[in-house]
Amino acid sequence: MSACINVKILSLILFIFASSQIVSGQLNIKVDDLEIDRSSFGFTQSYAPILSKSTPAIVSVTTQQFVKRVLPGGGNPIEDFLRRYYGYPRLYQPRVEEVPVPAGIGSGVIVTPDGYTITNAHVITANQNTGDLVEEVLVKVSDKEEYKASIVGYDRSTDIAVLKIDADRPLPFVTLSNSDNLEVGDVVFAVGNPLGIGKTVTMGIISATMKSELGVLGKVGSYENFIQTDASINPGNSGGALLDAKGRLIGINTAIISQTRSSIGIGLAIPVNMARKVLTDFVEGGELRRGFLGVELGETEQAGGALITKVIPGSAASRAGLRKNDLILIVGDKEVNSVNQSRVAISQTAPGTKLPLKILRSGVKMTLFVTLGLMGEDGNNLLPGVSLEVLNSKNRKKFGIPADSIGVVVAESSGEQDNFKEGVLIVEINGAPVRSIDDVKSNLQRGFNRFYVWYLGKYRFVSYRIP
User: Fold this and answer.
1) Which is more confidently placed, 321 or 98?
2) What is the pLDDT of residue 308?
3) What is the rounded CA–CA span in Å between residue 139 and residue 118?
4) Using CA of residue 268, residue 54, residue 187, residue 331, what is the dihedral sign?
5) Residue 79 phi, psi dihedral angles, 5° rounding
6) Most buried of 5, 8, 244, 322 (most Cβ within 10 A)?
7) For this structure, is 159 an active site residue?
8) Which domains does the chain have, with CATH numbers?
9) pLDDT of res. 249
10) In the annotation, is 393 catalytic?
11) Which of 54, 179, 232, 238 is catalytic?
Protein backbone atom coordinates (compact mmCIF):
# COMPACT_ATOMS: atom_id res chain seq x y z
CA MET A 1 0.00 0.00 0.00
CA SER A 2 1.13 3.59 -0.31
CA ALA A 3 0.23 6.98 1.09
CA CYS A 4 0.18 10.15 -1.01
CA ILE A 5 0.16 13.75 0.24
CA ASN A 6 -0.28 16.64 -2.21
CA VAL A 7 1.95 19.70 -1.83
CA LYS A 8 1.13 22.37 -4.42
CA ILE A 9 1.17 20.43 -7.73
CA LEU A 10 3.44 17.65 -6.54
CA SER A 11 2.76 14.39 -4.75
CA LEU A 12 4.82 13.55 -1.69
CA ILE A 13 4.74 9.78 -1.63
CA LEU A 14 5.49 7.74 1.46
CA PHE A 15 6.16 4.25 0.20
CA ILE A 16 4.34 1.65 2.22
CA PHE A 17 3.96 -1.80 0.80
CA ALA A 18 2.23 -2.37 3.59
CA SER A 19 2.56 3.49 22.07
CA SER A 20 5.10 0.61 21.19
CA GLN A 21 6.73 -2.44 22.69
CA ILE A 22 9.88 -1.23 24.40
CA VAL A 23 12.98 -3.19 25.34
CA SER A 24 15.82 -1.60 27.33
CA GLY A 25 19.40 -2.68 26.82
CA GLN A 26 22.88 -1.71 25.69
CA LEU A 27 23.61 -0.48 22.19
CA ASN A 28 26.80 -1.49 20.40
CA ILE A 29 26.90 0.66 17.26
CA LYS A 30 29.97 1.56 15.23
CA VAL A 31 30.36 5.26 14.40
CA ASP A 32 32.87 6.97 12.11
CA ASP A 33 32.65 10.78 12.47
CA LEU A 34 35.37 11.64 9.96
CA GLU A 35 34.39 13.72 6.96
CA ILE A 36 34.55 12.25 3.47
CA ASP A 37 37.76 13.02 1.56
CA ARG A 38 36.86 15.72 -0.96
CA SER A 39 40.43 16.50 -2.03
CA SER A 40 40.80 13.74 -4.65
CA PHE A 41 39.69 14.33 -8.23
CA GLY A 42 40.66 10.92 -9.58
CA PHE A 43 38.13 8.68 -11.35
CA THR A 44 36.97 5.67 -9.35
CA GLN A 45 36.60 2.59 -11.53
CA SER A 46 34.33 0.71 -9.10
CA TYR A 47 32.70 1.06 -5.70
CA ALA A 48 32.14 -2.69 -5.45
CA PRO A 49 34.81 -3.31 -2.75
CA ILE A 50 33.25 -0.64 -0.53
CA LEU A 51 29.62 -1.58 -1.08
CA SER A 52 30.27 -5.31 -0.61
CA LYS A 53 31.08 -4.58 3.04
CA SER A 54 27.93 -2.56 3.73
CA THR A 55 25.11 -3.91 1.56
CA PRO A 56 24.76 -7.28 3.41
CA ALA A 57 23.34 -5.24 6.33
CA ILE A 58 20.48 -3.81 4.23
CA VAL A 59 17.47 -6.09 4.55
CA SER A 60 13.99 -6.59 3.16
CA VAL A 61 11.15 -5.94 5.63
CA THR A 62 7.78 -7.58 4.98
CA THR A 63 4.74 -7.17 7.20
CA GLN A 64 1.65 -9.28 7.75
CA GLN A 65 -1.79 -8.99 9.31
CA PHE A 66 -3.79 -11.96 10.63
CA VAL A 67 -7.33 -12.29 9.32
CA LYS A 68 -9.89 -14.67 10.79
CA ARG A 69 -11.52 -16.93 8.21
CA VAL A 70 -14.36 -19.38 8.74
CA LEU A 71 -13.67 -22.72 7.09
CA PRO A 72 -16.54 -25.16 6.49
CA GLY A 73 -16.89 -28.42 8.39
CA GLY A 74 -17.61 -31.82 6.92
CA GLY A 75 -20.08 -32.12 4.05
CA ASN A 76 -21.25 -35.73 4.62
CA PRO A 77 -24.88 -36.00 3.30
CA ILE A 78 -25.71 -38.95 5.64
CA GLU A 79 -24.62 -36.87 8.65
CA ASP A 80 -26.78 -33.96 7.45
CA PHE A 81 -29.79 -36.32 7.05
CA LEU A 82 -29.41 -37.83 10.54
CA ARG A 83 -28.90 -34.40 12.13
CA ARG A 84 -31.94 -32.93 10.41
CA TYR A 85 -34.46 -35.76 11.07
CA TYR A 86 -33.18 -37.50 14.19
CA GLY A 87 -31.47 -34.68 16.06
CA TYR A 88 -27.98 -36.09 15.83
CA PRO A 89 -25.32 -33.55 16.79
CA ARG A 90 -23.13 -31.99 14.11
CA LEU A 91 -19.82 -33.83 14.11
CA TYR A 92 -17.87 -31.47 11.91
CA GLN A 93 -18.37 -27.88 13.08
CA PRO A 94 -17.14 -24.97 10.97
CA ARG A 95 -13.72 -23.87 12.25
CA VAL A 96 -12.13 -20.47 12.55
CA GLU A 97 -8.49 -20.03 11.64
CA GLU A 98 -6.20 -16.99 11.62
CA VAL A 99 -4.60 -16.66 8.22
CA PRO A 100 -1.61 -14.36 7.60
CA VAL A 101 -2.22 -11.79 4.88
CA PRO A 102 0.66 -9.71 3.43
CA ALA A 103 0.38 -6.07 4.49
CA GLY A 104 3.37 -4.47 2.85
CA ILE A 105 7.04 -4.50 2.00
CA GLY A 106 9.90 -2.11 2.68
CA SER A 107 13.55 -2.11 3.66
CA GLY A 108 15.68 -1.85 6.78
CA VAL A 109 19.27 -1.41 7.95
CA ILE A 110 20.97 -3.61 10.57
CA VAL A 111 23.15 -1.38 12.76
CA THR A 112 24.46 -3.80 15.42
CA PRO A 113 25.74 -7.40 15.22
CA ASP A 114 23.05 -8.47 17.71
CA GLY A 115 20.26 -7.45 15.35
CA TYR A 116 19.04 -3.93 16.09
CA THR A 117 17.57 -2.64 12.84
CA ILE A 118 16.32 0.76 11.70
CA THR A 119 13.41 1.22 9.29
CA ASN A 120 10.60 3.73 8.73
CA ALA A 121 7.68 3.93 11.14
CA HIS A 122 5.28 3.96 8.18
CA VAL A 123 6.66 0.59 7.00
CA ILE A 124 5.36 -1.12 10.16
CA THR A 125 2.06 0.80 10.26
CA ALA A 126 -0.93 -1.17 8.98
CA ASN A 127 -3.35 1.77 8.81
CA GLN A 128 -2.03 5.28 8.31
CA ASN A 129 -5.33 6.83 9.45
CA THR A 130 -5.61 4.99 12.77
CA GLY A 131 -1.88 4.41 13.32
CA ASP A 132 -2.41 0.70 14.06
CA LEU A 133 0.77 -1.36 13.80
CA VAL A 134 1.17 -4.51 11.76
CA GLU A 135 0.88 -7.80 13.65
CA GLU A 136 3.99 -9.49 12.30
CA VAL A 137 7.29 -8.23 10.88
CA LEU A 138 9.59 -10.48 8.87
CA VAL A 139 13.15 -9.48 8.02
CA LYS A 140 14.94 -11.19 5.14
CA VAL A 141 18.70 -10.95 5.61
CA SER A 142 19.62 -13.15 2.65
CA ASP A 143 17.88 -15.42 0.17
CA LYS A 144 17.94 -18.27 2.69
CA GLU A 145 17.71 -16.32 5.96
CA GLU A 146 14.48 -14.81 7.25
CA TYR A 147 13.61 -13.89 10.86
CA LYS A 148 10.62 -12.64 12.78
CA ALA A 149 11.46 -9.24 14.22
CA SER A 150 10.07 -7.54 17.32
CA ILE A 151 9.19 -3.84 17.35
CA VAL A 152 11.40 -2.15 19.94
CA GLY A 153 9.92 1.31 19.42
CA TYR A 154 8.73 3.77 16.82
CA ASP A 155 8.48 7.52 16.46
CA ARG A 156 6.01 8.91 13.94
CA SER A 157 7.25 12.48 14.37
CA THR A 158 10.54 11.49 12.67
CA ASP A 159 9.19 8.37 10.86
CA ILE A 160 11.80 6.13 12.47
CA ALA A 161 11.18 2.64 13.88
CA VAL A 162 13.56 0.26 15.63
CA LEU A 163 13.31 -3.52 15.18
CA LYS A 164 15.17 -6.37 16.89
CA ILE A 165 16.21 -9.58 15.15
CA ASP A 166 17.12 -12.54 17.34
CA ALA A 167 19.55 -14.64 15.31
CA ASP A 168 21.88 -17.47 16.30
CA ARG A 169 24.90 -15.69 14.83
CA PRO A 170 26.35 -12.17 14.65
CA LEU A 171 24.63 -10.32 11.84
CA PRO A 172 26.19 -8.01 9.25
CA PHE A 173 25.88 -4.35 10.21
CA VAL A 174 26.79 -0.90 8.88
CA THR A 175 29.00 1.82 10.30
CA LEU A 176 27.19 5.08 11.05
CA SER A 177 28.56 8.41 9.85
CA ASN A 178 27.89 11.98 11.03
CA SER A 179 25.19 13.49 8.81
CA ASP A 180 26.13 17.01 9.95
CA ASN A 181 29.25 16.70 7.77
CA LEU A 182 27.37 16.20 4.49
CA GLU A 183 27.77 18.62 1.61
CA VAL A 184 25.89 19.09 -1.64
CA GLY A 185 27.68 17.12 -4.36
CA ASP A 186 28.84 14.22 -2.17
CA VAL A 187 28.42 10.84 -3.90
CA VAL A 188 25.75 8.63 -2.29
CA PHE A 189 24.16 5.21 -2.80
CA ALA A 190 20.53 4.26 -2.10
CA VAL A 191 20.17 0.60 -1.13
CA GLY A 192 16.90 -1.22 -0.59
CA ASN A 193 14.23 -3.51 -1.96
CA PRO A 194 12.38 -1.47 -4.62
CA LEU A 195 9.12 -2.99 -5.87
CA GLY A 196 10.01 -6.18 -4.03
CA ILE A 197 12.56 -7.26 -6.66
CA GLY A 198 15.36 -7.74 -4.13
CA LYS A 199 18.39 -5.81 -2.98
CA THR A 200 19.24 -3.00 -5.37
CA VAL A 201 21.85 -0.22 -5.33
CA THR A 202 21.43 3.11 -7.12
CA MET A 203 23.94 5.96 -7.27
CA GLY A 204 23.62 9.74 -7.16
CA ILE A 205 24.72 12.79 -5.24
CA ILE A 206 23.39 14.86 -2.37
CA SER A 207 21.19 17.49 -4.01
CA ALA A 208 20.34 19.45 -0.85
CA THR A 209 20.35 19.20 2.93
CA MET A 210 17.99 20.38 5.70
CA LYS A 211 14.90 20.22 3.49
CA SER A 212 11.85 20.96 5.65
CA GLU A 213 8.28 22.29 5.60
CA LEU A 214 7.43 19.77 2.88
CA GLY A 215 4.59 18.09 4.78
CA VAL A 216 5.97 14.66 3.93
CA LEU A 217 5.30 13.11 7.32
CA GLY A 218 1.75 14.46 7.42
CA LYS A 219 1.69 14.91 11.20
CA VAL A 220 1.46 18.09 13.25
CA GLY A 221 4.65 18.52 15.27
CA SER A 222 6.78 16.35 12.97
CA TYR A 223 10.50 16.97 12.66
CA GLU A 224 11.46 17.31 8.98
CA ASN A 225 15.14 17.75 8.16
CA PHE A 226 15.63 15.69 5.01
CA ILE A 227 18.64 14.93 2.86
CA GLN A 228 17.65 15.32 -0.79
CA THR A 229 19.27 13.04 -3.37
CA ASP A 230 18.90 12.14 -7.04
CA ALA A 231 19.82 8.50 -6.36
CA SER A 232 16.83 6.50 -7.57
CA ILE A 233 14.35 5.67 -4.77
CA ASN A 234 11.19 3.71 -5.55
CA PRO A 235 8.33 1.94 -3.74
CA GLY A 236 9.85 -0.59 -1.35
CA ASN A 237 12.97 1.50 -0.69
CA SER A 238 11.41 3.02 2.45
CA GLY A 239 13.55 2.25 5.47
CA GLY A 240 16.59 1.38 3.38
CA ALA A 241 20.06 2.89 3.53
CA LEU A 242 21.60 5.99 2.05
CA LEU A 243 25.35 5.32 2.08
CA ASP A 244 28.30 7.61 1.43
CA ALA A 245 31.34 6.84 -0.72
CA LYS A 246 32.98 5.03 2.22
CA GLY A 247 29.97 2.75 2.66
CA ARG A 248 28.84 4.45 5.88
CA LEU A 249 25.18 5.02 6.75
CA ILE A 250 24.25 8.69 6.36
CA GLY A 251 20.45 8.46 6.06
CA ILE A 252 17.28 6.37 5.99
CA ASN A 253 15.44 6.54 2.66
CA THR A 254 11.88 7.64 3.26
CA ALA A 255 10.00 9.30 0.41
CA ILE A 256 10.12 10.89 -3.02
CA ILE A 257 8.55 13.95 -4.59
CA SER A 258 6.96 12.96 -7.85
CA GLN A 259 4.02 13.47 -10.18
CA THR A 260 4.25 9.92 -11.50
CA ARG A 261 4.52 7.85 -8.26
CA SER A 262 7.98 6.76 -9.39
CA SER A 263 11.43 8.28 -9.07
CA ILE A 264 12.11 11.48 -11.01
CA GLY A 265 15.29 12.27 -9.13
CA ILE A 266 13.94 13.93 -5.98
CA GLY A 267 14.42 11.48 -3.14
CA LEU A 268 14.33 12.22 0.58
CA ALA A 269 16.21 10.54 3.42
CA ILE A 270 16.19 11.09 7.19
CA PRO A 271 19.68 12.09 8.43
CA VAL A 272 21.36 9.29 10.37
CA ASN A 273 21.94 11.58 13.36
CA MET A 274 18.16 11.85 13.86
CA ALA A 275 17.73 8.11 13.42
CA ARG A 276 20.58 7.42 15.82
CA LYS A 277 18.92 9.56 18.52
CA VAL A 278 15.68 7.55 18.28
CA LEU A 279 17.60 4.25 18.22
CA THR A 280 19.68 5.11 21.29
CA ASP A 281 16.71 6.44 23.28
CA PHE A 282 14.63 3.30 22.76
CA VAL A 283 17.37 0.71 23.22
CA GLU A 284 19.22 2.27 26.14
CA GLY A 285 16.41 4.18 27.87
CA GLY A 286 13.23 2.44 26.78
CA GLU A 287 11.60 5.69 25.64
CA LEU A 288 12.14 8.84 23.61
CA ARG A 289 13.89 11.65 25.48
CA ARG A 290 13.69 15.01 23.73
CA GLY A 291 14.84 18.36 24.99
CA PHE A 292 12.04 20.78 25.88
CA LEU A 293 12.59 24.55 25.73
CA GLY A 294 9.08 25.83 26.43
CA VAL A 295 8.41 28.45 23.77
CA GLU A 296 6.12 28.98 20.83
CA LEU A 297 7.94 30.07 17.67
CA GLY A 298 7.01 32.00 14.58
CA GLU A 299 8.73 32.84 11.31
CA THR A 300 10.37 36.21 10.89
CA GLU A 301 10.76 38.57 7.94
CA GLN A 302 14.46 38.88 8.72
CA ALA A 303 17.08 36.82 6.90
CA GLY A 304 17.25 34.06 9.52
CA GLY A 305 16.29 32.91 12.97
CA ALA A 306 13.05 31.95 14.72
CA LEU A 307 10.91 34.47 16.58
CA ILE A 308 9.68 33.64 20.10
CA THR A 309 5.97 34.48 20.13
CA LYS A 310 5.31 33.09 23.61
CA VAL A 311 7.25 31.81 26.62
CA ILE A 312 5.49 29.12 28.67
CA PRO A 313 5.46 30.01 32.38
CA GLY A 314 7.72 27.84 34.52
CA SER A 315 9.48 26.32 31.51
CA ALA A 316 13.20 26.05 30.85
CA ALA A 317 12.95 29.12 28.59
CA SER A 318 11.23 31.12 31.32
CA ARG A 319 13.86 30.18 33.90
CA ALA A 320 16.65 31.16 31.48
CA GLY A 321 15.20 34.64 30.94
CA LEU A 322 13.96 34.30 27.36
CA ARG A 323 11.23 36.75 26.40
CA LYS A 324 8.52 37.21 23.83
CA ASN A 325 9.89 38.77 20.59
CA ASP A 326 13.41 37.45 21.18
CA LEU A 327 14.87 36.15 17.90
CA ILE A 328 16.75 32.85 18.21
CA LEU A 329 19.80 32.87 15.92
CA ILE A 330 21.97 29.96 17.10
CA VAL A 331 21.03 26.87 19.12
CA GLY A 332 24.15 25.35 20.64
CA ASP A 333 26.60 25.42 17.74
CA LYS A 334 23.91 25.27 15.03
CA GLU A 335 22.81 28.37 13.15
CA VAL A 336 19.04 28.24 12.63
CA ASN A 337 17.18 29.91 9.78
CA SER A 338 13.62 28.78 10.42
CA VAL A 339 11.19 27.56 13.06
CA ASN A 340 11.69 23.97 11.91
CA GLN A 341 15.48 24.13 12.19
CA SER A 342 15.14 25.52 15.72
CA ARG A 343 12.73 22.77 16.73
CA VAL A 344 14.98 20.06 15.29
CA ALA A 345 18.09 21.43 17.02
CA ILE A 346 16.33 21.55 20.41
CA SER A 347 14.64 18.15 20.07
CA GLN A 348 17.94 16.46 19.18
CA THR A 349 19.59 17.78 22.34
CA ALA A 350 19.42 15.62 25.46
CA PRO A 351 17.26 16.85 28.36
CA GLY A 352 19.33 18.38 31.14
CA THR A 353 21.86 19.83 28.71
CA LYS A 354 22.97 23.39 29.45
CA LEU A 355 22.56 24.84 26.00
CA PRO A 356 23.77 28.27 24.82
CA LEU A 357 21.22 30.21 22.77
CA LYS A 358 22.36 33.22 20.79
CA ILE A 359 19.46 35.65 20.44
CA LEU A 360 18.67 39.09 19.13
CA ARG A 361 16.73 41.28 21.57
CA SER A 362 15.78 44.85 20.63
CA GLY A 363 18.65 44.99 18.18
CA VAL A 364 21.24 43.67 20.64
CA LYS A 365 22.83 40.24 20.27
CA MET A 366 23.33 38.24 23.46
CA THR A 367 23.84 34.67 24.63
CA LEU A 368 21.64 33.01 27.26
CA PHE A 369 22.20 29.57 28.75
CA VAL A 370 19.18 27.32 29.15
CA THR A 371 19.01 23.90 30.83
CA LEU A 372 16.57 21.95 28.71
CA GLY A 373 13.71 20.08 30.28
CA LEU A 374 12.33 16.73 29.12
CA MET A 375 9.50 16.83 26.61
CA GLY A 376 6.38 15.73 28.49
CA GLU A 377 8.18 15.28 31.82
CA ASP A 378 6.60 18.13 33.76
CA GLY A 379 3.36 20.07 33.62
CA ASN A 380 4.64 22.83 31.36
CA ASN A 381 3.09 21.52 28.15
CA LEU A 382 -0.01 19.66 29.32
CA LEU A 383 -2.39 22.63 29.50
CA PRO A 384 -1.59 25.68 27.31
CA GLY A 385 -0.20 28.57 29.33
CA VAL A 386 -0.20 26.60 32.59
CA SER A 387 2.70 25.34 34.70
CA LEU A 388 1.87 22.54 37.15
CA GLU A 389 3.70 21.47 40.29
CA VAL A 390 3.31 18.59 42.70
CA LEU A 391 1.87 19.89 45.96
CA ASN A 392 4.50 20.62 48.62
CA SER A 393 4.79 22.67 51.81
CA LYS A 394 6.05 25.74 49.95
CA ASN A 395 3.27 26.06 47.37
CA ARG A 396 0.68 24.83 49.89
CA LYS A 397 1.57 27.80 52.11
CA LYS A 398 1.79 30.22 49.18
CA PHE A 399 -1.74 29.50 47.96
CA GLY A 400 -3.33 28.73 51.33
CA ILE A 401 -4.22 25.15 50.44
CA PRO A 402 -5.62 23.14 53.40
CA ALA A 403 -3.42 20.46 54.93
CA ASP A 404 -5.93 17.70 54.12
CA SER A 405 -6.17 18.58 50.40
CA ILE A 406 -4.13 16.53 47.93
CA GLY A 407 -3.44 17.14 44.25
CA VAL A 408 -1.38 19.04 41.70
CA VAL A 409 -1.30 22.82 41.85
CA VAL A 410 -1.21 25.46 39.10
CA ALA A 411 2.03 27.26 39.96
CA GLU A 412 1.95 29.76 37.09
CA SER A 413 -0.66 30.73 34.52
CA SER A 414 -0.65 33.05 31.53
CA GLY A 415 -4.37 33.63 32.02
CA GLU A 416 -5.37 31.85 28.81
CA GLN A 417 -7.30 29.21 30.75
CA ASP A 418 -9.89 30.85 33.02
CA ASN A 419 -10.44 27.67 34.99
CA PHE A 420 -6.75 27.17 35.78
CA LYS A 421 -5.54 30.31 37.52
CA GLU A 422 -2.54 30.34 39.84
CA GLY A 423 -3.39 28.50 43.05
CA VAL A 424 -5.96 26.13 41.52
CA LEU A 425 -5.50 22.64 42.97
CA ILE A 426 -6.40 19.79 40.59
CA VAL A 427 -7.80 17.00 42.77
CA GLU A 428 -9.34 14.65 40.18
CA ILE A 429 -9.45 14.27 36.40
CA ASN A 430 -12.33 12.28 34.92
CA GLY A 431 -13.01 10.74 38.33
CA ALA A 432 -9.43 9.57 38.90
CA PRO A 433 -7.42 11.00 41.85
CA VAL A 434 -4.42 13.15 40.88
CA ARG A 435 -1.27 12.92 42.99
CA SER A 436 1.48 13.57 40.42
CA ILE A 437 2.22 15.03 36.99
CA ASP A 438 2.12 11.48 35.61
CA ASP A 439 -1.45 11.17 36.93
CA VAL A 440 -2.39 14.30 34.98
CA LYS A 441 -0.83 12.94 31.78
CA SER A 442 -2.35 9.46 32.08
CA ASN A 443 -5.89 10.65 32.85
CA LEU A 444 -6.23 13.40 30.25
CA GLN A 445 -8.05 12.31 27.11
CA ARG A 446 -9.12 13.79 23.81
CA GLY A 447 -12.44 15.60 23.92
CA PHE A 448 -13.99 16.97 27.12
CA ASN A 449 -12.30 16.27 30.45
CA ARG A 450 -13.95 16.74 33.83
CA PHE A 451 -11.72 18.28 36.50
CA TYR A 452 -12.50 18.40 40.22
CA VAL A 453 -10.55 21.35 41.63
CA TRP A 454 -10.06 23.43 44.76
CA TYR A 455 -9.69 27.21 44.53
CA LEU A 456 -9.91 29.91 47.21
CA GLY A 457 -11.48 27.59 49.77
CA LYS A 458 -14.08 25.98 47.49
CA TYR A 459 -14.29 22.72 45.57
CA ARG A 460 -16.01 22.59 42.18
CA PHE A 461 -16.11 20.78 38.83
CA VAL A 462 -14.71 22.42 35.67
CA SER A 463 -14.34 21.13 32.13
CA TYR A 464 -11.51 21.36 29.64
CA ARG A 465 -11.53 20.18 26.03
CA ILE A 466 -8.48 18.68 24.30
CA PRO A 467 -9.00 18.87 20.50
Assistant:
1) 321
2) 94
3) 11
4) positive
5) -65, -40
6) 244
7) yes
8) 1-61+105-124+154-287 (2.40.10.120), 291-374 (2.30.42.10), 382-466 (2.30.42.10)
9) 97
10) no
11) 238
Cα(182)–Cα(164) distance, integer angstroms: 28
Is the pTM above the cut of 0.85?
Answer: no
Could you give the CA distance from residue 277 to residue 219 in angstroms, rounded to a whole number? Answer: 19
Which residue among the candidates 54, 60, 107, 122 is catalytic per the annotation? Answer: 122
Please report, for residues 239, 319, 335, 405, the alpha-carbon distance to residue 440 in angstroms, rounded to integers and kept in the order given: 36, 23, 36, 16
For CA atoms 236, 242, 248, 251, the dihedral sign is negative
Most confident of 48-57, 75-84, 252-261, 447-456: 48-57
Of 31 and 380, more confident: 31
Helices (H) and strands (E) in the chain, counts: 7, 28
Whether residue 336 contacts residue 305, with contact meaning beta carbons closer than 8 Å, is answered with yes
Higher pLDDT, residue 83 or 150: 150
For residue 200, the one-letter residue type is T
Terminal Cα-to-Cα distance of the chain (whole angstroms) = 29
Half-sphere exposure of 61 (CA within 13 A, CB side): 39
In the set 155, 159, 186, 281, the catalytic residue is 159
Can 114 be counted among the known catalytic residues? no
